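Lab notebook, design round three. We kept the backbone fixed and only want residue identities now. Task for the bench partner: fill in a sequence for the structure below.
Input structure tokens:
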């Protein structure tokens, strides 16, 4: 059995981007789950919905779309071809940062998790921006 496996030490960009999207997605779920334990959160959502001019189901649909966009990026980062992959990761990364902070609340857990998500998303944008196709 050969135990002298040689590696380059470099992680494939597609794998790296996909893994960062997994971290973002888990953190998005964790922030939502922890928020459910805060008394009065549903009342705050109702007040926000009234001030935003959107119904709660409309806000939930928007959240579902954004959450599924992040889930889709886990797979798309691995299967899209180089050029489109780079731009989709950059654009969706920036849009997701805007979504996270656009709906931000001042709960300490949310600020912490949103910061982790943002750092991961900035890494996604950075790695996608610096990514060069070695197969071209």
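Proposed sequence:
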């Amino acid at each position: 059995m050969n135990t002298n496996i040689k590696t380059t030490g470099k992680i494939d960009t597609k794998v790296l981007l996909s893994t960062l999207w997994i971290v973002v997605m888990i953190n998005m779920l964790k922030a939502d789950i922890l928020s459910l334990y805060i008394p009065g959160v549903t009342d705050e959502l109702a007040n926000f919905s009234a001030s935003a001019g959107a119904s709660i189901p409309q806000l939930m649909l928007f959240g579902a779309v954004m959450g599924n966009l992040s889930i889709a990026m886990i797979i798309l980062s691995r299967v899209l071809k180089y050029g489109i992959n780079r731009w989709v990761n950059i654009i969706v990364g920036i849009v997701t940062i805007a979504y996270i902070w656009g709906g931000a609340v001042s709960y300490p857990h949310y600020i912490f998790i949103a910061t982790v998500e943002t750092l991961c998303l900035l890494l996604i944008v950075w790695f996608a921006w610096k990514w060069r196709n070695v197969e071209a």
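Keep this in mind before ordering anything: The chain has one domain: 31-130.
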